[in-house]
Amino acid sequence: MYALVDCNNFYASCERVFQPHLIGKPIVILSNNDGCIISRSDEAKALGIPMGAPEFKVRAELKQKNIHVFSSNYPLYGDLSSRVMKILESFTPHIEPYSIDEAFLNFDGMSIPDFHDYGSKMKYRLQKWLSIPVSIGFADTKALSKVANKIARKFPEKTKGVYVIDTEEKRIKALKWTKIEDVWGIGFRLNKKMKAKNINTAYDFTLPHNEAFIKKEMGVVGMRLKYELEGKSVLDLDLPKDRKTIAITRSFDGNITTFDEMKERVSTFATVCAEKLRKQKSCCNNVIVYLRKDKYKTERQHYNFYKMETIPFSSNSSITISNIAVKMLKNMFEEGEIYKKAGVIVTGIIPENQKQFHLFEEENPKHLKLMKVMDDYFKKTGERKIRLGNQDLQRTWKMKQNHLSKKYTTDFKDILKISCQ
């Protein structure tokens, strides 16, 4: 048996954990640099606020309808997400975090007489310990557990936020209720093709006469989805693996026109990439630097630029990766141009203990000790106070976040103060 646990309106729920007076009130969350709306509470959806709308276009409407606006606070959301996953691990050791607010659970080998009761206990504990509301769907396959979750979310009064598909009758009824565009893996383009073929529900998708069409349009992925919806489990839990590419890219809150300012940004991005490599005990072999000019203010036809360089030896040193990134930047940067975005990407990632050593060219062994000191300090304090000389000591990267809430759980300066009388 699988379960899909989905946190309801996760970003808005995180803001409400420490500001409970916002419960029941409309909330929207903005993207990086407060660009557009990326998350809405149910109350904001009911008021007709569109997903993805640029903030400046709906600013007056948000104010008029008294909607609470927040900049995205990823340190807070990430910390609460990890707490949600930790609590779920107490119910089963087999868990696949699917996104920041979703996780698949597997209960094979466990003796659970009543899954609805078990799901209710999970829901109660998450609400009691973290004040995060969730919906939970149980079924024999991952795809069906997604369908069950949607039913639990859509009908909270009837299901109490937990729904179990455990009979053939329930499976057929659920598939007939699920629109094809709501099926896991059916995107915008596939949805149009499915409807043109008169496949309007998940049940239609599983009918035998549509199998050839599904195989032609979706290949093996489509057939796996069909089997999953039929109740035949073919998708196992995808356990977390080390990342094969690490990218740090950011849009700037203003224009960057000088080399020194861009050098500081690129060096900082390279340093964070190296830090992530060391955290997962890996090294990289390639470094890519990415720049984007202001496409409206450049006379050139192209405004996106990449450059890649292979490191002579595998490395996770901030110094080495930053030096190579800055060296590439010198060849890419053009004075007089306006830049809006930059990034550093590391690839060719291998485990740290599989690093090949070279006879004539090798990294300075002092880097290893220095990186350990930097990592230990960051782990202890949560602050990147030890930095390379070409980094700005006052910032890691600066984004426009005019509506940012406090980092209640990850920054001592923002911790809640309680007056005891």
UniProtKB/TrEMBL annotation:
This is Y-family DNA polymerase. Keywords: DNA damage, SOS mutagenesis, SOS response. GO terms for biological process: DNA repair; error-prone translesion synthesis; SOS response. GO terms for molecular function: damaged DNA binding; DNA-directed DNA polymerase activity. Residues 2-187 form the UmuC domain. PANTHER family: DNA POLYMERASE KAPPA (PTHR11076:SF33), DNA REPAIR POLYMERASE UMUC / TRANSFERASE FAMILY MEMBER (PTHR11076). It comes from Flavobacterium capsici. The lineage of its organism: Bacteria, Pseudomonadati, Bacteroidota, Flavobacteriia, Flavobacteriales. It holds the Pfam family IMS. Belongs to the DNA polymerase type-Y family.
